[in-house]
Amino acid sequence: MEWIYSTSDPILQTLVGCFLLFIIIIFLTRIIGLRSFAKFTAYDFAFTIAIGSIISSTLTSSTSIAHGFTAIAGLLILTYIFSVLQRKIKPLSKLISNAPLLLMDGNTILEDNLKHARIEKKQLIAKLREANVLNYNQVVAVVLESTGAISVLHKTENSDEKFNKELLLGVRKTP
Known about the structure:
Layout: H1 11-32, H2 42-60, H3 65-88, H4 90-96, E1 101-105, E2 108-109, H5 111-117, H6 121-130, E3 139-144, E4 150-154
Antiparallel strand pairs: 1-2, 1-3, 3-4
Transmembrane segments: 12-33, 40-59, 65-85
Protein name: YetF C-terminal domain-containing protein
Domain YetF C-terminal: 88-159
């Protein structure tokens, strides 16, 4: 039964660690801001995964809470610094972030962009289904975001809504 529970398992220590890390994450997020865990860029995503890994290793290994706190704080401070620098130094933003890429322009699938992004047509179609698109004429645009997520901008067939082209600000039309 040791594979279920061992008397040498540090259960109380793990519970206290959970509580402390919870408080630490709340504290750091309040100081640095909610953007701490936003996934606007690929590096934001990587930092979020890294922080999850640090939390896991802190709770399940011999890494101390202080060591985990330092690592988490260091990563969150780096994300804060990079977010400030990106706003101030535009070339840096281009260097560390991918610009979103248009995959469909209206009802036209941009095959070269799909190929460049290494996305198969069937994957694109799956995203259209997820967005409840019933036919290609409903599609205004499909964008591969800088995070790797795919956004589907669509309308209902009989809709008179005007599309605000500002929604495609910064989106590349060609790879």
